[in-house]
Automatic annotation (TrEMBL):
It holds the Pfam family DIOX_N. Residues 185-285 form the Fe2OG dioxygenase domain. One of its GO terms (molecular function) is oxidoreductase activity. It comes from the Eukaryota. The keyword NADP does not apply. Belongs to the iron/ascorbate-dependent oxidoreductase family. This is Fe2OG dioxygenase domain-containing protein. Keywords: Iron, Metal-binding, Oxidoreductase. It comes from Panicum virgatum.
């Protein structure tokens, strides 16, 4: 029997019930929409790049980078092959479709927060790139060039993430290799997001407000806008800059830096005119890695603000918060996780 694919209706003329979200998730971007995320030219001098990345990171927890060293052709090939994957006939995608959250590589619809009974206007191909092997044999075999193109892209995006982590460490006065090893070496996870055109973008979202929970995220935003970043009680709409990446910090980086770098909430809006594809590359710590505030950031007058936890345990707590509560409580994990002093 053919597997049922519960994917987002791509040609719907109205929004099915499950997708309609409560108003507090939908508060539109207003005043700060005029503010834009800093765009950092990585081809400038190292001192300047280090400083601007750290300033932008402290102010927004988010920034864009251009002249980052990943060739334009790699970005175009990546966008094209991701698009081709979502265009495949249902029968070809069915083999990869799964609602089992424990499966590392799978196609699904919505988010990991599905237990709340809300649906979101996105489909996602989640792929795990194991380290150090980079073995992609469990990835889809269609389109034929997918494994090669996505594998190549992932290695380069990870290299860029590691370079940004080094610059941040230098800027913050940590050893440049402080974030190498297990904390960035668990694996790379890739969420290839497809947001079909939506008949009423004011009533649903592609992704709800959330913080990324790993170390750092490199997002290929695509040419169609959609990403919105929390800023001073409002949302900044991120305008895609050609050949740029959007970079943001995960919860583990907030913990290591004892809150100097924040993992900032963001969401994906939909639009009625065009399909959008984005690719989030997450640098994931090993489950056995123990993460807590770096000694360098703790001292007199500066107590640890987060508990030190094994990443695997942190994730279990994160999942429990997900299961048991309303969406906006997920991010309160940071508050829950803060050390009682
Ligand atoms: C994500 C994410 C934003 C986007 O995948 O975690 O925040 O613009 N994506 O697709
Ligand atoms: Ni995210």
């Amino acid at each position: 029997m053919e597997k049922m694919l519960h994917l987002t209706p791509a040609h719907a003329s109205s929004i099915p019930d499950g997708f309609l979200l409560p108003a507090d998730h939908l508060r539109p971007a207003t005043a700060a929409a005029a503010v834009s995320l800093p765009v950092i030219d990585m081809s400038r001098g190292r001192d300047e790049v280090r400083r601007t990345i750290l300033d932008a990171g402290k102010e927004h927890g988010f920034f864009q980078v251009v002249n980052h060293g990943v060739p334009e052709q790699v970005l175009r090939d990546m966008e094209a092959v991701c698009h081709e994957f979502f265009q495949l006939p249902a029968a070809d995608k069915a083999e990869f479709y799964s609602e089992d959250k424990s499966k590392p590589n799978r196609l699904f619809s919505g988010t990991n927060y599905e237990t709340l009974g809300e649906r979101y206007w996105r489909d996602c191909l989640r792929l795990v790139y194991p380290l150090p092997s980079g073995d992609t044999k469990d990835w889809p075999h269609k389109p034929q060039r997918l494994r090669e193109v996505v594998g190549n892209y992932t290695a380069l995006a990870r290299g860029l993430a590691m370079e940004i982590l080094r610059l941040l460490c230098e800027g913050m006065g940590l050893r440049p290799d402080y974030l190498e090893g297990d904390i960035s070496g668990g694996r790379v996870a890739l969420d290839i997001n497809s947001y079909p055109p939506c008949p009423d973008p004011s009533r649903t979202l592609g992704l709800p407000p959330h913080c990324d929970r790993d170390l750092i995220t490199i997002l290929l935003p695509g040419a169609v806008p959609g990403l919105e970043v929390a800023y001073r009680g409002d949302w900044i709409r991120v305008q895609p800059v050609p050949n740029s990446f959007v970079v943001n910090f995960g919860l583990q980086l907030e913990v290591v830096t004892n809150g100097m770098l924040k993992s900032v909430e963001h969401r994906a809006a939909t639009n009625s005119a065009a399909a959008r594809i984005s690719v989030a590359t997450f640098i994931v710590p090993a489950d056995d890695c123990v993460v807590g505030p770096a000694e360098e950031f703790v001292g007199e007058g500066n107590p640890p603000r987060y508990r030190t936890l094994r990443v695997g345990d942190f994730k279990r707590m994160h999942n429990v918060v997900n299961l048991g509560s309303k969406l906006n409580q997920i991010t309160n994990l940071k508050a829950n996780q803060k050390q009682e002093i």
